[in-house]
């Protein structure tokens, strides 16, 4: 599963801060997040809902709308910063270099346009093909995501497709301009369990075929553990742990990661019963001093309330932001 | 499709029938129309005879039966005042009303949709706030009063627009149309503006609400993630979706315009069927009122039908059932 | 009461300039309506107090104006400002009473339709549907033409057009409310229908009505004004703001604009205030927008 990582990353996010300035106060949805995605790599971005995962995805594409704003940091695509790039440059990036798959296929397609028109839009924007060639490209793409009678289906409207089929269409649209990076934001959460694995399989196959990279945003560790080469765990807008998938799943060092793993039914390693992380995510508008996780952490000590931990190297490939990280084999 | 048409036709007939019952009942309680047709110095015998001639001496049910029969036959009786077929009177005046309503609607659309789209796309801008305050004022204004103020300013004070009448008309397909002459346009402007304000404000608010609602939809963001410009996303993906609720109220708004035309026509002495209705109410000219109401009911029913059809053309999710 | 001042509603109210302006305008009219007769020297309906020598005086800031009549006088020497204060009483009274009557009738019919369903539901909603496809002003105009002028008749006509919107809303929320478990539980527990409606359904369907009721007062004031302007509303002896405009319209062409323009300004400010506040209420009470 693990592939060779090239020396220069395709995408490097460095110290990203994205804040939302609301009447009720500033929400620091993303507060100093850094990670890298190499060419052909799958990076899993994991955290509880409300943890700022989707905001990272939208920040990369420059789709943060008011009252949100990227307040600091860099997003380097091939070493070129996107945060400081203008709208015109971003439009070239969107869809062509980086595309996105949204959570809910029922709402990500325009109900009043045919599937063909919505696919064609991408090629109009990002290719010089003539109408006939564009149509053929759309048909080929639809077929490659497993939609039969593709030519007919181009004339159909989204409501004539099932949820799983719509997500296939969305994936087809995302892959159409052969982007180098796909950001998939909870791509299977809204789907039936049986459809979920089909869609994941399809995505894995698509990026492998086209040599693209992927950022898989999800709350579901089970999904990323199957799909990703690397995992970055977010909590309250911060990276709390990252590393290679296998090491992170088998021997996590951050108590939060441990908690997440213990709450997965399948991988809950032979514990007698499913565990749950006690408490809930703190109010992100005014975070406590020190470690954000301390109130829910079984290992918290006085120091955790004093000082915010920073990412430090742990065993193997793992980095974690914790004053008292778990050693391999140690239980929380 | 055929089943749908049949169903709608039955529905429409049912509505018209209910309207006919209500109109008939209400009319029976209106002041005694017999005094409209007999001379002031008529004797009791003369009055009784007139009553018999008008069929007013029979029971309500019989009267309704006759009423309905003549409605179905298209015979609405003669106006008590003009002593001409009521239907002819109304039809003569209908083009005047229709052209005023259409000009008002066109004005409302031309102003409301672009401003509504702007205000919906930029909800926090200063200009949007001004637009919204203006539209709220638009629904708070008494339309007839606006007409008066316009008359005072443009006709009495500055004398740049005429205050009443239709101006020169030209004959087209046997109809007298003001819009074919310059003088006609000159006359229609003030009444049409007066009439359009309320509808303009409502269409504007609906467009804005639709635009704001659609702005929150995922597919708008997805379209931007494809690389489309903000402008394209707004107009190619947003506008059509935003206009669906606007189309829904379009029929009602057209109905409102026809209704408020009665007042506007009265202020501007516009010789349309609305003014005729008001005059007929003053004179208890029952046949004319009945024709007006039945005709307007028919128009509304047809408008609603057309709106439903248009709806399916815009929204592929809706099918005619 | 302290709870109210700490509530989110009050917090947002303080931040919304339209809510403050709207409620200030409404408060101003409430004051004018209650205290009106004590604010002006002249009772415009007391013939003895009128002096024909004072007729057609322009507003006081214009040449020939008289400080006794700040907004001028009409053809009988009646103070326009005083007429407005008295006229607003009638307009506001009609708007409020017709709203309360519509709300009561509509809520009742909506509850019956939603709770009992069946034939009652079919009939009530059919009538509502047909009525909704016709403009209210036309229905009111038609009713008035049949029953003649008078405040009581205006109230009847307005109620006849106003109940529909409540009935539909209440029916809708009743239907969704009786699906809920607590109502089912109350039924199983053997509570009478009347008690279930009063204790469980009614309190939960009332919130959306607040917005409708607020805005409807403004709509009714406008409809009443239109009817009176056409001469089928209030009688000449009880002139509302609309009738004042009509009376002024007759002399407009002689350039005597103030007798009709100022009553119109009064209607506009009143309805504008109501709509401003209604808009704020809608945003506050509609949880979908939050």
UniProtKB/TrEMBL annotation, chain A:
Subcellular location: Cell inner membrane
Annotated GO CC locations: plasma membrane
Record keywords, A-Z: ATP-binding, Cell membrane, Membrane, Nucleotide-binding, Transport
Domain ABC transporter as annotated: residue spans: 11-261
Cell membrane keyword on record: yes
Major localisation: membrane
Top-rank taxon: Bacteria
Pfam families: ABC_tran (PF00005), oligo_HPY (PF08352)
InterPro entries on file: AAA+_ATPase, ABC_Ni/Peptide_Import, ABC_transporter-like_ATP-bd, ABC_transporter-like_CS, Oligopep_ABC_C, P-loop_NTPase
Name of this chain's protein: Oligopeptide/dipeptide ABC transporter ATP-binding protein
From TrEMBL, chain B:
GO BP: transmembrane transport
Keyword Iron: no
Bilayer disposition of the protein: Multi-pass membrane protein
Listed GO CC annotations: plasma membrane
Sequence ranges assigned to domain ABC transmembrane type-1 in this UniProt record: 94-311
Predominant place of localization: membrane
Location of this chain's protein in the cell: Cell membrane
PROSITE patterns: ABC_TM1 (PS50928)
Keyword Transport: yes
Keywords on record: Cell membrane, Membrane, Transmembrane, Transmembrane helix, Transport
Annotated transmembrane regions: 12-29, 100-118, 130-155, 184-204, 242-268, 288-314
UniProt family annotation: Belongs to the binding-protein-dependent transport system permease family.
PANTHER family with a match to the protein in the record: ABC TRANSPORTER PERMEASE PROTEIN (PTHR43163:SF2), DIPEPTIDE TRANSPORT SYSTEM PERMEASE PROTEIN DPPB-RELATED (PTHR43163)
Protein name: Peptide/nickel transport system permease protein
Originating organism: Sulfitobacter mediterraneus
Phylogenetic lineage: Bacteria, Pseudomonadati, Pseudomonadota, Alphaproteobacteria, Rhodobacterales
Automatic annotation (TrEMBL), chain C:
Highest taxon listed in the record's lineage: Bacteria
Transmembrane parts of this sequence: 20-40, 80-101, 108-128, 134-166, 201-223, 256-281
Residue span(s) of domain ABC transmembrane type-1: 88-278
Keywords, sorted A to Z: Cell membrane, Membrane, Transmembrane, Transmembrane helix, Transport
InterPro entries per UniProt: BP-dependent_transpt_permease, MetI-like, MetI-like_sf
Main subcellular location: membrane
UniProt topology in membrane: Multi-pass membrane protein
A single GO BP: transmembrane transport
DNA damage listed as a keyword: no
Any matching Pfam family: BPD_transp_1
Compartment annotation: Cell membrane
Gene Ontology cellular-component terms listed: plasma membrane
Family under the similarity heading: Belongs to the binding-protein-dependent transport system permease family.
Protein name, as recorded: Peptide/nickel transport system permease protein
Protein source organism: Sulfitobacter mediterraneus
């Amino acid at each position: 599963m693990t592939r060779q990582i090239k020396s220069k990353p395709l995408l490097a996010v460095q110290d990203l801060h994205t804040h939302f300035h609301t009447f009720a106060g500033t929400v620091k949805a993303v507060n100093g997040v850094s990670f890298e995605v190499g060419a052909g790599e799958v990076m899993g971005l994991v955290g509880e809902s409300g943890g700022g995962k989707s905001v990272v995805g939208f920040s990369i594409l420059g789709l943060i709308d008011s009252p949100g704003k990227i307040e600091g940091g860099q997003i380097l695509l091939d070493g070129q910063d996107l945060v400081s790039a203008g709208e015109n440059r971003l439009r070239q990036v969107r869809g062509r270099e980086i595309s996105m798959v949204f959570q809910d296929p029922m709402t990500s397609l325009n109900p009043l346009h045919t599937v063909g028109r919505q696919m064609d839009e991408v090629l109009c924007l990002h290719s010089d093909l003539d109408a006939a060639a564009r149509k053929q490209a759309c048909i080929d793409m639809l077929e490659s995501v497993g939609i039969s009678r593709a030519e007919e289906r181009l004339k159909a409207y989204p409501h004539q497709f099932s949820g799983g089929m719509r997500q296939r269409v969305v994936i087809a649209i995302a892959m159409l301009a052969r982007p180098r990076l796909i950001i998939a934001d909870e791509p299977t959460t809204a789907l039936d369990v049986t459809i979920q694995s089909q869609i994941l399989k399809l995505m894995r196959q698509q990026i492998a075929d086209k040599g693209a990279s992927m950022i898989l945003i999800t709350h579901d560790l089970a999904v990323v553990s199957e799909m990703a080469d690397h995992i970055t765990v977010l909590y309250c807008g911060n990276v709390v742990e990252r590393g290679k998938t296998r090491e992170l799943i088998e021997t996590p060092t951050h108590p939060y990661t441990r908690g997440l793993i213990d709450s997965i039914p399948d991988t809950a390693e032979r514990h007698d019963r499913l565990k749950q992380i006690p408490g809930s995510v703190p109010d992100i508008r005014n975070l406590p001093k020190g470690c954000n996780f301390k109130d829910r952490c079984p290992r918290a000590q006085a120091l955790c309330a004093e000082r915010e931990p920073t990412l430090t190297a742990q065993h193997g490939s793992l980095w974690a932001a914790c004053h008292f990280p778990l050693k391999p084999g140690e239980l929380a | 499709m055929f089943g749908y048409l049949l169903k709608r036709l039955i529905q429409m007939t049912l509505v018209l029938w209910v309207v006919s019952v209500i109109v008939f009942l209400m009319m029976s309680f209106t002041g005694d129309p017999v005094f409209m047709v007999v001379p002031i110095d008529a004797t009791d015998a003369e009055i009784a005879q007139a009553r018999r001639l008008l069929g007013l001496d029979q029971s309500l049910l019989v009267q309704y039966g006759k009423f309905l029969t003549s409605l179905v036959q298209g015979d609405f009786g003669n106006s008590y005042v003009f002593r001409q077929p009521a239907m002819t009177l109304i039809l003569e005046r209908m083009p005047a009303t229709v052209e005023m309503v259409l000009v008002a609607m066109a004005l409302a659309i031309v102003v409301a949709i672009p401003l509504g789209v702007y205000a919906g796309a930029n909800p926090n801008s200063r200009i949007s706030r001004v637009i919204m305050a203006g539209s709220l004022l638009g629904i708070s204004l008494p339309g007839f009063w606006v007409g008066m103020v316009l008359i005072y300013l443009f006709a009495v004070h500055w004398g740049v627009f005429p205050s009443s009448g239709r101006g020169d008309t030209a004959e087209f397909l046997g109809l007298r149309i003001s819009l074919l002459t310059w003088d006609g346009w000159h006359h229609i402007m003030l009444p049409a503006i007066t009439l359009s304000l309320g509808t303009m404000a409502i269409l504007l608010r609906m467009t804005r609400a639709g635009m704001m609602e659609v702005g929150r939809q995922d597919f708008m963001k997805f379209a931007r993630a494809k690389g489309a410009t903000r402008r394209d996303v707004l107009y190619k993906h947003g506008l059509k979706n935003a206009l669906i609720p606007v189309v829904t109220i379009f029929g009602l708004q057209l109905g409102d315009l026809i209704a408020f035309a009665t007042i506007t026509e009265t202020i501007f002495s516009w010789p349309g069927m609305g003014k005729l209705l008001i005059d007929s109410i003053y004179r208890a000219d029952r046949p004319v009122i009945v024709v007006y109401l039945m005709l307007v009911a028919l128009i509304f029913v047809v408008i609603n039908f057309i709106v439903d059809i248009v709806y399916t053309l815009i929204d592929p999710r809706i099918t005619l059932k | 009461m302290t709870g109210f001042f700490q509530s989110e509603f009050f917090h947002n109210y303080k931040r919304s300039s339209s809510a403050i302006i709207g409620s200030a305008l409404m408060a101003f009219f409430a004051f004018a309506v209650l205290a009106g007769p004590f604010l002006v020297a002249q009772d415009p309906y007391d013939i003895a107090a009128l002096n024909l020598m004072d007729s057609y005086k322009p507003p006081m800031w214009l040449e020939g104006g008289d400080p006794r009549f700040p907004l001028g006088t009409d053809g009988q020497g009646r103070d326009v400002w005083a007429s407005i204060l008295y006229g607003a009483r009638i307009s506001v009274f009609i708007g409020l009473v017709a709203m309360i009557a519509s709300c009561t009738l509509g809520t009742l019919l909506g509850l019956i339709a939603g709770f009992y369903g069946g034939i009652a539901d079919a009939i009530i909603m059919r009538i509502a549907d047909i009525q909704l496809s016709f403009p209210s002003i036309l229905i009111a105009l038609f009713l008035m033409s049949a029953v003649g002028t008078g405040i009581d008749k205006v109230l009847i006509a307005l109620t006849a057009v106003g109940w529909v919107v409540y009935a539909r809303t209440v029916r809708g929320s009743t239907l969704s409310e009786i699906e809920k478990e607590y109502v089912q539980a109350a039924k199983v527990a053997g509570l009478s229908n009347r008690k279930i409606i009063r204790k469980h359904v009614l309190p939960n369907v009332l919130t959306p009505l607040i917005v409708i009721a607020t805005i409807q007062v403004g709509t009714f004031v406008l409809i009443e004004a239109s009817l009176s302007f056409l001469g089928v509303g209030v009688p000449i002896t009880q002139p509302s703001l609309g009738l004042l405009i009509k009376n002024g319209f007759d002399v407009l062409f002689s350039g005597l604009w103030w007798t009709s323009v100022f009553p119109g300004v009064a209607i506009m400010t009143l309805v504008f205030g109501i709509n401003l506040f209604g808009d704020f209420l809608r945003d506050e009470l509609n949880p979908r927008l939050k």
